[in-house]
Predict the structure.
Amino acid sequence: MAGNSAPHALKANGRYAPSPTATLHLGNLRTAFVAYLAAKAQGAQFLLRIEDMDEVACRPEHAQSAMRDLQKLGLLFDGDIMWQSQRRDAYSQVIHELLANDLLYPCYCTRREVLAEAESSVFAPHSPKGAYSGTCRELSTQQRKEKEAQGRKPSLRLRGNNAEISFIDRLFGEQTGLIDDFVVQRADGTPAYNLAVVLDDAAQQVGEVVRGEDLLETTPRQIYLQKILNLPEVSYLHVPLVLGADGERLAKRHGSVTLAEQEEHGVSAERVRQLFAISLGLCSEEENLSLDELCLRFSVEGLPTTPWQLPAELTFS
Ligand code: GLU
């Protein structure tokens, strides 16, 4: 942010990377707030990346509203926005390299088949939910031809070799995951999230990934890709989720969960930000601190590790 005094020398960048599939809700915005504070507290830049690769699910108006909401909260980003939809060539190039090195194979399983298979298989404790059991891993050329003749379009999976990846999340501590053969290109030709995110973070020179706890489980796969692609390591900070009044993960069905809806009920963006700050243990109800002051107070050690239930003041049904 221009004019924001960085406490020390510039470090590798921080970022927020929303998918514009819907208007951001308060849970998304609270994560963005932590991403901003974590970056600025380290004197790093705060970059924005719009993860709009999925042409069917993403809408330009949601990207616009995300930018508007971040601005209202004062979470100004540095530099240019990165749009995933404009980076197809970069992803394709890496997919070609991985193919050339025989690290990928075509998988003809439908999503339903993968899920059914995953439910009936017994996986090791560190396997991710829905881990792929390897049905198409050793198909012969003839078998592949038969699948293609049935009109099946393949996704491309990376050979994960059941590698064990451990990392330290700055809030959740040591994590371990086994790497299944995960998808890097979907059957419709779209690069998969795990591939795009790793390439984008490297291209944006991200030093620390801050995002919702729901993505903690995807991290070992991303680290595995970084290693294979010889990309720099990054650190991770996953932020506990926000829950609705019923204790379930915050979602549209909970009612007025967007910033615009809160404003319609008379809750200002400043108040929402203050409630975020209180929920993160950064200030008390009596204090109304500026973003710069909050950056100075920010420390990962002080953050809660449990979800935050939306307070009554922000709950409108
Ligand atoms: N685009 C993802 C989301 O909105 C976040 C990806 C990331 O931060 O790595 O959930």
